Amino acid sequence: MKHVVLLGGSGYVGKTFQEILSKRNISFRNFSRTELNYYNPAKLKEALKAEAPDCLINAAGYTGKPNVDACEDDKANCLLGNAVLPGIIREVCESLKLPWGHVSSGCIYTGSRSDGSGFLEDDTPNFDFRHNNCSFYSGTKALGEEVLKGAENCYIWRLRIPFDERNNPRNYLTKLLTYEWLLDAENSVSQRFEFIDACLACFEKEIPSGVYNVTNPGAISAREITEIMKTHGMVKKELKFFESEEAFMSEVVRAPRSNCIMSSEKLSSLDIRLTEVHEAVDRACKNWTE
Ligand SMILES: NC(=O)c1ccc[n+]([C@@H]2O[C@H](COP(=O)([O-])OP(=O)(O)OC[C@H]3O[C@@H](n4cnc5c(N)ncnc54)[C@H](OP(=O)(O)O)[C@@H]3O)[C@@H](O)[C@H]2O)c1
Fold it and tell me: Homologous superfamily of 3-163+191-217+261-275 in CATH?
């Protein structure tokens, strides 16, 4: 990889791409919306022709601030960022025959497969507009994947609940430490830096294009995480858990939340491996920085 174009580099995930690309001395150019209106296909194409990258990474999207509930109030922008934009990038990249990757999300699923195992990449989303059970955010992320079905030279990387050792309001571990009430749900999760390494490895190893669940192998409950945090002296208050998901839904949030288990086997079968989830959480807690 000699030169990369990054979209959405000012965001939480985009900044992580910038940090890792810089650390590895990989040349990249970040286009922010203010610098280049990348929603305009002609402008995006012109910029890509001038930049002549080996690949493009799309870390742009609409997540809602302070959380996904905000997407319920800004539906047009949410649809544009998560469902329309991937289609625009696809059209431009395919016309230039440019390989690219799109940051998607595991939040298009809820629960696990019927045998309790993690969702596979080809499993149809079950937390989307078609099932009429989702947040507006999840619905648009699922639509974004539909728009990219069959895309040429395109990786769709499903990120899921990023965490790492740096205290930050976007870090799942920070959220568990700061929320007054917690929901003891089981999830597959993604160590933020391992996620980025895995995405870059897709280009480096030239694995087949398509959808990849980029999560740490296994699943972990919020309670298990807090138990690990306690062993590292991170928990300084009494933690309170909701009695049920229904109680959580009725008291705290507006839009339904996804909790799900995903299989990371497709990626590991291609020799791109993330750390087992309990070990990865333990390491993040051990190296915790305020
Ligand atoms: N963070 C998570 O927990 C998480 C989990 C799973 C998946 N994801 C996915 O990862 C991608 C990046 O998420 P993130 O957490 O880094 O999001 P973020 O912090 O909100 O950043 C997203 C970036 O997207 C760009 N953008 C383009 N259109 C936008 C719009 N209409 N409104 C706001 N920003 C817009 C902006 O970059 P410029 O201004 O530089 O153009 C912005 O900084 C998204 O597709 C998200 O769905 C995130």
Answer: NAD(P)-binding Rossmann-like Domain (3.40.50.720)
pLDDT at position 159: 98
Domain layout of the chain by residue ranges: 3-163+191-217+261-275
Instruction: Give the pLDDT score at 249.
Output: 77
pLDDT digits (tens, 9 = 90+) for 182-240: 999 999 999 999 999 999 999 999 999 999 999 999 999 999 999 999 999 999 999 99
The pick from 33, 63, 158 for probing ligand 1's pocket by mutation, whose C-beta has the most ligand atoms within 8 angstroms, reads 63
CA distance 75 to 20: 32
Atom of ligand 1 nearest to the CA of 159: 6
